[in-house]
Amino acid sequence: MAKASEIKVGNILRYNGELVIVTEVLHRTPGKGGAFYLDKFRNIKTGRIVEARLATDEQVEICRVETNDYQYLYEEGEFMVIMDNTTYDQFNIPKSLFGPSAKFLKEGMNVIVSFESEEPIMAQAPNSVELEITYAEPAVKGDTSSGAMKYATTENGIEIKVPLFVNQGDKVKVDTRTGEYVERVK
Questions:
Q1: Are the C-beta atoms of residues 160 and 167 closer than 8 Å to each other?
Q2: CATH of the domain at 20
């Protein structure tokens, strides 16, 4: 347990039985009455923002969160199987923790996963991934206006928009957060 005055942005707390990450800490000292903290927390599971008014000596529980790099092995139903690179232990992580970037994961990739007392609470894919184009629509001659795009299918079956010069067999870099084409990889 810690006092509210010891909370820092980025701490993970157990607040009202839920895991929250601290996004903002404001110290207020009104002219009348005692000082207090106005804090903003983001619920880790739901993403909802919660505001709290805490007295300076109010007790809060700061959670011990262990964040490490793991290797993504394969998908198994609604879970992603990852492996610790040092101990070779394997864990099942719910696919929902990765969010929309889960579809870009390739076997053997490194991912970041946070555990709080043996329970996975956060997972993050790399910001970008290199994928091979398995099918690309042919470019139409004369359709060379600036920024012209066409649809292409990647090696893991995802359809993305790419510039006209990208062809089947090319490798492209894709942003896993937005799903957008970044650049062609040589």
A1: no
A2: 2.30.30.30
